Amino acid sequence: MSALADKIKGNWNMVKGKLKQEYAELTDDDLVFAEGQEDELVGQIQKKTGQSKEEVKKFIDSL
């Protein structure tokens, strides 16, 4: 499991709240997380916010 997956899985409620604070355009539906689908989640955030995949991952890693 990747470090990103560990971060998301272990602290999902906190990560979700911080993502919504940082990217106000995200909705709960955008932030549906299923184990093993970290890349899909990052892709959805990227699509909605216009941020690069690396920027999204860096933000999550910084939490």
Give structural notes.
The chain has a single domain (3-62), classed as Protein Yjbj, Chain: A (Orthogonal Bundle), CATH 1.10.1470. 65% of the residues lie in helices and 0% in strands. It contains four helices and no strands. It has helices at 3-10, 12-22, 38-49, 53-62. This is CsbD-like domain-containing protein. It comes from Lunatimonas lonarensis.
Descriptive terms for the model:
Protein Yjbj, Chain: A, 0% strand, 63 residues, mainly alpha
Cα-to-Cα separation, first versus last residue: 18 Å
Q: Would you tell me the structural class of the helices and strands?
A: mainly alpha
Classify the helix fraction into a percent range. 55-70%
Q: What's the overall average pLDDT, rounded? A: 86
What number of structural domains do the residues give?
A: 1
CATH topology category name: Protein Yjbj, Chain: A
- Spans of 5+ residues with little confidence (pLDDT < 50)? none
Give the DSSP E fraction (strand runs of 2 or more residues). Answer: under 5%
Largest sheet: none
The CATH architecture comes to Orthogonal Bundle
Number of strands: 0
Summed up, the helix count is 4
Name of the CATH class: Mainly Alpha
Label the overall shape.
Answer: globular
